[in-house]
């Protein structure tokens, strides 16, 4: 299952891949890429680059991933998001009705974008479904399928409308979050990899890197062009766990391609498959007739948010929604495996 390796698989992946440099300059003067791979953000991350002078900048990536995981991980004790959710739980236990919390700049930026697109997608993307994600626990081994009564109770304490971010540059600490229902658990799993990819891109550009491919567990961002001046080639993966085949490939420069798919994280219980992209209307895995959605956009965070939201909306509602976004390219793969390009 892609992105959901077991512990021995993770260890093996680490041993096989950690900081692996696969090749240097190839024959006939043709430049072969360098690839560094590691396990981070609960997935396999790889960075491909072509110029050995970029190695120093690329070497900083594991430390930067660690930094961002320390902000956005919902499950890592001590991360900023973990602490925000812990404060909310305490406030809910005390019976408080709203809570105001300080945020880092990164958390403020990510939450601002998440809330902007939650509104734009009419809640198809909703960063407040954390209590459901906790229960289903798609990346762990103990899963709970919530009953209808549990889903109704939990959904009554979800909803992006209950979150508000503010930036008051005149105050000593400008960035804050106000939560009007502290029983909420915030989950940025639907956009954090995209946000982090954008930040890594900025950091690499600042270090003078002119060409690289960042792949954060299938969330791909390409920076610049290849040394020969041509675009990189990326593809829409066949929507099957573990498959490395592509349904289609296309050229990409200075942009990101992000896939959300039901095959990426799931478990089976009593013959029913439960996958990780949740319908905020029902609290169940979204059943929208799709196996995957790939979004190509300049901003990886936007591509990440929209791939999740479009998966929830389905092809028809998604296609209508996309009329407002002519610059964004989308590949839907339906339940029959057919590829539909928008
Ligand atoms: P992605 O793989 O980017 O589509 O993100 C899926 C992850 O986002 C899940 O594992 C959850 O952590 C979270 N998530 C699930 N459903 C939603 C949703 N409707 N809106 C926002 N985040 C979601
Ligand atoms: Mg996403």
Give the secondary structure arrangement, pairings included:
Elements: H1 7-17, E1 34-40, E2 43-49, H2 55-59, H3 61-72, H4 80-93, E3 99-102, H5 105-120, H6 130-136, H7 148-155, E4 163-167, E5 175-179, H8 192-206, E6 212-216, E7 219-223, E8 232-237, E9 246-252, E10 255-261, E11 266-269, E12 272-275, E13 290-297, H9 300-313, H10 315-322, E14 329-334, E15 339-341
Antiparallel strand pairs: 1-2, 2-6, 3-5, 4-5, 6-7, 7-10, 8-9, 10-13, 11-12, 13-14, 14-15
Helix pairs in contact: 5-9, 8-9, 9-10
The structure holds adenosine monophosphate and magnesium ion.
What tags apply to this protein structure?
342 residues, alpha+beta, T-fold, 2 domains, 8-stranded antiparallel sheet, 3-stranded antiparallel sheet, 10 helices, globular, disordered N terminus, binds adenosine monophosphate, binds magnesium ion
General description of the model:
The chain has helices at residues 7-17, 55-59, 61-72, 80-93, 105-120, 130-136, 148-155, 192-206, 300-313, 315-322; strands at residues 34-40, 43-49, 99-102, 163-167, 175-179, 212-216, 219-223, 232-237, 246-252, 255-261, 266-269, 272-275, 290-297, 329-334, 339-341. The chain is 32% helix and 24% strand. Strands 1-2-6-7-10-13-14-15 form an eight-stranded antiparallel β-sheet. The protein folds into two domains: 5-66 and 190-341, ApbE-like domains (T-fold, Roll), CATH 3.10.520; 70-179, ApbE-like superfamily (T-fold, Orthogonal Bundle). A hairpin with a 2-residue loop joins β1 and β2 (43-49). With 342 residues, it is α+β, with helices and mostly antiparallel strands. Magnesium ion (MG) binds at residues 190-191, 260, 304-305, 307-308.
